[in-house]
Design a protein that fits this description.
The chain has 392 residues and is mainly beta. It has one domain: TolB, C-terminal domain (Neuraminidase, 6 Propeller). Helix content is 5%, strand content 45%. The protein contains three helices and 29 strands. The protein has helices at residues 31-34, 287-293, 299-306, and strands spanning 14-17, 39-42, 52-60, 72-76, 82-86, 91-95, 101-108, 114-115, 118-123, 127-132, 137-142, 148-153, 166-173, 178-185, 198-205, 217-220, 225-229, 232-236, 244-249, 252-257, 262-267, 272-277, 317-322, 328-333, 339-345, 351-358, 362-367, 370-376, 382-391. The strands form seven sheets. A six-stranded mixed beta sheet has the order 1-2-22-21-20-19, with no helix packed on it. Strands 4-5-6-7-8 form a five-stranded mixed beta sheet, with no helix packed on it. It has a four-stranded antiparallel beta sheet with strand order 3-29-28-27, with no helix packed on it. A hairpin with a 2-residue loop joins β17 and β18. The longest helix has 8 residues, at 299-306. The two termini are 42 Å apart.
């Protein structure tokens, strides 16, 4: 098992990929980087190998007979069909690769193929797998018949260390008949600072009979603003707080804590293998600018931001994804907070391409040469948009 709130100190072996003529200012390696072994350090002046272009190909959303809610997530199967979960209506819909509507697959309820809270979805060559946050259950559908073929109940000890409530946050497919379940710690009224919250990885068989006792991994959980007043508690996610992101591909786990442009790779047993690091300088954070972002909020929410001890700089990036070829897609933060820049990196960390992006767009899946994003159209409605990916 690994614990990554404090990095272990080892002899540092760097694969340095910086050029002598680089014009980027020298950046001292952070302690978190200097304490890792087998780190590939690239230059902040690295130029993309290819010109990356994203071209809109199709959209998956409302039809003449279907009106979707505002909370959409999606996943794509190996045939390019798109499963769209409507979290507001608690329904799952299937679309054909060209954007045309196919059918509704599920509805709200407690029975087989019914849901109370649609969560993360993943596909393999045979099945669609869906986590229900409220029922603590993963349901599997056959990708040919779309019939329910199995369910896995996740039974965990809900009360963790420090009085934190624990619940499933995500899951990953391992290539065998088991899942890696990501267990998250909620915020607690009994711990005003809400420190020591974590994301832990446990394995469970599809039969649900063998939830592991030992963690595969344990990472610090994402930060938030928390205000406790008597018996009530308010939690507010803000973009300048630091966060953890985990991605899983081909029995490899990639973890990032967005304090730095640093991504670490672990094997299926949670053993550290290597890291990728770019010494990009984080954008300076202006307190008045942040307050202006929240001046239309209710007084109690605005007060939480106003009274926060903000950091001097923004995080390095917003989030990242790993595509079906093992490449990393990182949404790097820039001066304009309505925009981000997509950085596409190879498995080893080489910068393959960059493309402008929008912070309102949420990448859902990257598969078979296409990127799928949840975003708002010109009518103000949410939909899933399919982009072809070109590198020249």
């Amino acid at each position: 098992m690994i614990r990554v709130s404090v990095f272990f100190v080892v002899f540092v072996v760097f694969v340095v990929m910086v050029t002598a003529c680089s014009s980027a200012p020298e950046v001292e390696l952070p302690e978190e980087v200097a304490a890792l072994e087998n780190v590939s350090v690239y230059s902040a002046d690295s130029k993309p190998v290819f010109e990356l272009t994203l071209t809109k190909e199709a959209a998956f959303g409302d039809t003449d007979d279907l009106f979707l809610g505002g909370w959409l997530s999606s996943v794509t199967d190996h045939e390019g069909r798109v499963f769209v979960a409507d979290g507001q209506e608690t329904k799952l819909h299937l679309y054909n690769p060209d954007g045309s509507y196919n059918r509704q697959i599920s509805r709200e309820g407690d029975g087989p193929g019914e849901y109370r809270n649609l969560g993360p979805m993943h596909t393999d060559d045979q099945y669609l797998h869906i986590l229900d946050y409220q029922l603590n259950r993963i349901t599997r559908y056959d990708l040919q018949s779309f019939e329910v073929t199995g369910e896995t109940s996740i039974s965990i000890e809900q009360e963790g260390d420090g009085g934190f409530y624990r619940s499933p946050q995500d899951f990953y497919l391992t290539g065998s008949d088991e899942y890696v379940i990501v267990i998250g710690s909620s915020f607690s009224r009994d711990n005003a600072s809400n420190t020591d919250r974590s994301l832990d990885g446990l394995t469970i068989s599809w039969s649900g009979e063998s939830l592991s006792d030992d963690n595969l991994f344990s990472f610090d959980a994402s930060e938030a603003l928390v205000h406790v007043d008597g018996g009530s508690m308010m939690v507010m996610m803000v973009p300048y707080k630091r966060s953890t992101v985990i991605a899983y591909h081909d029995n490899r786990l990639v973890h990032g804590w967005n304090e730095h442009y640093l991504f670490s790779v672990y094997d299926q047993n949670g053993e550290y293998e290597r890291s990728i690091y770019y010494p990009y300088q984080n954008m300076p954070l202006e307190r008045d600018e942040v307050l202006n972002m929240y001046d239309d909020r209710d007084a109690q929410w605005f007060s939480m931001v106003q009274n926060d001890d903000m950091p001097d700089v923004w995080p390095s990036w917003k989030t990242f994804s790993v595509d079906d070829e093992g490449r990393l897609w990182v949404e790097r933060l820039v001066d304009d907070h309505e925009q981000t820049v997509l950085h596409l990196m190879s498995d080893s960390g080489e910068l393959l391409g960059t493309a402008p992006w929008n912070s309102d767009k949420n990448i859902q899946d990257i598969k078979n040469g296409y990127l799928y994003s949840s975003e708002e159209n010109e009518m103000g409605l949410r939909e899933i948009v399919k982009y072809s990916v070109s590198m020249e």
